[in-house]
Every structure is written in structure tokens, then in C-alpha cells.
Amino acid sequence: TQNRTLFFFLSDKVLVNIGNHFDLASSIFVAPRKGIYSFSFHVVKVYNRQTIQVSLMQNGYPVISAFAGDQDVTREAASNGVLLLMEREDKVHLKLERGNLMGGWKYSTFSGFLVFPL
């Protein structure tokens, strides 16, 4: 129905995209309507001895971030999640603010869904 929207992005594949509001080419989710949305992400740095910071961006501004910075491990995960009030056409995406993800987004996920339409 029109009230449903859901996406699940793994590395370079969209596994679920109900409503087609997540664009793989730009990795941007565009809200189809005003409402409360839930977003979560999980990123992994692999064989990388630097700190990474990944932020969830809403309309170009960081909302939440996650960090991974242990220098003595070959793999480390960073995760976060948030509920956001979004207007129709608001945009959400992930941004690598600091560091380098060796292997790109290969070991990362990003998902979201409409919790409550307004």
C-alpha cells in the first residue's frame, strides 16, 4: 500500500526496497511522506589501522554517527540507529566522515522503514 516503505541495503545490493524510495545509484533514501522513520546502519572496517566515522545524514546534516578505532584488531564494527521525524521529500544517506573502509561498503548494511505516518 502507499503507507508502506522499507529498504535494506547490503554492500552494493538492495535486498528489499518496498516502495522504491531507496536509490542504489546515489545511496539516498527519499521519504515518500511525512512520518516517523526508523534507520539503522552497521559498518565494518577490515584490515585498516585507522579510525573511521560514519554519519547518518538528513538533508545534508549529520544526525548520528558511529566510530570504530581500535588499532589492534583486523576487523571492527560500528553501528547506530535512530527514529527521525521526516517531511515528504527529506533525504537520508550514510557518509564516511573520517577514515577509509577497505573493501568499500562490502561488509556494511543500511536499512530503514516508516514507523508511523503523519
List keywords for this structure.
118 residues; mainly beta; Jelly Rolls; 5-stranded antiparallel β-sheet; 10 strands; Cerebellin 2; Cerebellin_Synaptic_Org
Question: How is this structure best described in words?
Answer:
- The chain is mainly beta and 118 residues long.
- The protein has one domain (22-109): Jelly Rolls (Sandwich).
- Helix content is 0%, strand content 61%.
- The chain is built from no helices and ten strands.
- The strands form two sheets. It has a five-stranded antiparallel beta sheet with strand order 2-1-10-5-8, with no helix packed on it. It has a five-stranded antiparallel beta sheet with strand order 3-4-9-6-7, with no helix packed on it.
- The chain starts with 5 loop residues before the first strand and ends with a strand.
Rg, nearest Å: 15 Å
Helical segment tally? 0
What sequence of helices (H) and strands (E) makes up the elements? EEEEEEEEEE
CATH architecture: Sandwich
**Major β-sheet, in short?**
5 strands, antiparallel
The total tally of domains equals: 1
Which CATH class? Mainly Beta
Percent of residues in helical segments? under 10%
Structural class, from secondary structure content? Answer: mainly beta
The fraction of residues in strands falls at over 45%
Strand order, main sheet: write it out.
2-1-10-5-8
Distance between the amino and carboxyl termini = 15 Å
Low-confidence stretches: none
Shape: elongated
Query: What number is the mean pLDDT?
Result: 85
The CATH topology is given as Jelly Rolls
| Count of beta strands | 10
